[in-house]
Design a protein that fits this description.
Shape: globular
Largest sheet: 6 strands, mixed
Number of strands: 13
CATH topology of the largest domain: Hypothetical Protein Tm841, Chain: A,domain 3
Strand content: 25-35%
Amino acid sequence: MVGILTDTSASIPEPLACKLGIEIVPYYIHRGLETLRDMVDARPAEFAEWLREATKLPTTSHPNPGDYLIGLRNLAQRAREIVVLTMTSKGSGAYQSCLAAVDLFKQQFADVRVEVVDTLQVAMSHGWAAIEAARAVLDGLGFEEVAQRAREVARQGMMIQTADTLRYLYMGGRIGRAKHLVGSLLNIKPLIGMEDGIIIALGTARSRLKAYRRMVELMQQRVGESARIKIAFTHVAALEQLETLRAMVAAHFECVETIVTDLSPVLAVHSGPGTVGVSFFPT
């Protein structure tokens, strides 16, 4: 049997990860003197409420080799082959950390095969690759086929996200020299995506509704009107707003599977409450 290992930044709903047997290791959030484990000590709803009042953003860090080593050892109890998926190596050190863990792991479990897949994705575009890999395992596919399925879904995936405000980008130092514009720009809705493993700007909108319309247009450009897709809607304390986008997407695409999930707190730090996103791939 093939085991699947990934991390909390994938934002996979916990019941689904449990059902599919996906092993999850946590990212970290450093808040003052506290170190919180993503999705363990920092839970989405409570963390979003804290973010609303925050005057200084916490910092974040990827799992260390020891975290991945624990996950690998756990899987080795039931699997002789393991596929590990990390978020983009161009935005996190998780991939390199995981490779270091595999080297240590091999010293103790030389007979266990391990493949580390750099998804070049983030959030549920990373998560979908792990989910579909786990389903491939359940369908009886072999090690190489499972790893290939993970890469294929990651390659086909697209993530689009819009924040409700630029406030958290500003607090995190990501607006740079435009600080003098912050007062007038806080209500602008930025749209971001992922290209070749790097977060890119996809434009801005003057209202939440216009941002959602633009997201649908970008989806149409990627896969075409009425395309069959699997889609995940991610949000940060924005379930009501998400339903508006969900209805708009449903009017233009054949959604053969839909997942609604919280964006993990380690990612929510950078965009804040009100964030809504989509992660999808054609099927």
